[in-house]
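Example (one chain per record):
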Amino acid sequence: MDTERRIETYLQRLYGYAFSLTRDQHRSEDLVQECALRALSAKKTPTDEPAFRAWLFRILKNAFLDRLRRNKTAIAAMEDVNFSPVMEFWQGEERFITALTVKIEMAKLPLSQREILTLIDISGLSYAEAAETLGIPTGTVMSRISRARRALLEAVESSNIHELPVKKKAGLALK
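Predicted structure:
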């Protein structure tokens, strides 16, 4: 399989990672495009698929860091907690409430916690691949993901969005 097709299989995951870093659709799209261009112009690419995937995520991370260095004001924007969730299809179903709650609370987490959650829990990288992508030991990845998951769980549990209690009337449960 040629490099272009290999990259195409990871575009959605790369976009998810880019969005967790930038919290902006257009900047995320630009980062993914830059990542793809850098990967396509590389003289040598990893042949092993897990190594190739980690390599792509590392390219994206480096492109993001390069942009931060060029634009110092982006650092302040990254830690801004104001979050405008995209309008969700709303049917009152618990899964939509849960998804929205998780999105909102994840957006409030520090960049390092959003990043590790996105790499492992959303993009599906292994601990070793995440460690390689971030340039840190696997043990550090394990402790970071544990702390990030705990922080997200605590944030979701303490959010003000809760399932409404079921009211009972004349032996019937009303929802």
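Caption: Residues 49-70 form the longest helix (22 residues).
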